[in-house]
Write a structure and sequence with these properties.
By secondary structure, the chain is mainly β. Helix content is 11%, strand content 41%. The protein has two helices and ten strands. Strands 2, 4, 5, 7, 9 and 10 form a six-stranded mixed sheet that branches. A four-stranded antiparallel sheet has the order 1-3-8-6. The radius of gyration is 16 Å and the shape is globular.
């Protein structure tokens, strides 16, 4: 039962916006260069690209804690969670779809307490991409040393993520 509750809690936390994690004394990120003509771009990445096109963008990785943190930053494919909600695959999952379209300039950043750093990235749409909306994620996770657990050896790690929405006309 405890493992079931832990997995349920972790799954719920994965679909929360990354900005919420940052606002609640955690680590996360937000689009570094939101566009004035698209209010959605303040909380998710939104791009319209044709097959074969690329675009540069940046994600601001944020440590809103009073401790220095090493934060991993990585792309993932998206998935439909239970109930139809948008979610992101795990870091351990192989990039099979749109997550492969994202190339980050860095895979981790060292952040001072209450610090941030912009990590650039490139989205490259393959020539054979189909028309429509395609989704991926950029995820964030603080690197933490394993901690001893007194409850059945369950280890939880938390991450946050930002949706990457790419429309192909």
């Amino acid at each position: 039962l405890l493992a079931f509750l832990a997995v349920g809690l972790a799954s719920t936390l994965l679909v929360l916006p990354s900005v919420s994690a940052v606002e609640n004394s955690g680590v996360g990120g937000k689009p570094a260069f939101p566009r004035e003509n698209n209010t959605r771009s303040t909380s998710i990445f939104v791009h319209e690209l044709k097959p074969g096109e690329s675009v540069r963008d940046g994600v601001e990785v944020i440590n809103n804690t009073d401790q220095p943190k090493t934060v991993e930053v990585y792309p993932t494919d998206s998935l439909v969670a239970s109930g139809g909600a948008f979610s992101c695959e795990q870091k351990a999952d192989t990039l099979d779809y749109e997550g492969k379209w994202i190339t980050l300039d860095k895979s981790a950043v060292e952040l001072k307490p209450n610090g941030s750093e912009v990590v650039g990235f490139t989205i490259t749409v393959p020539e054979n991409a189909t028309v429509g909306e395609h989704n991926a994620c950029i995820a964030f996770s603080a690197v933490e040393a394993p901690k001893e657990s007194s409850v059945n050896g369950v280890q939880l790690s938390f991450r946050s993520a930002i949706r990457v929405a790419i429309t192909i006309p």
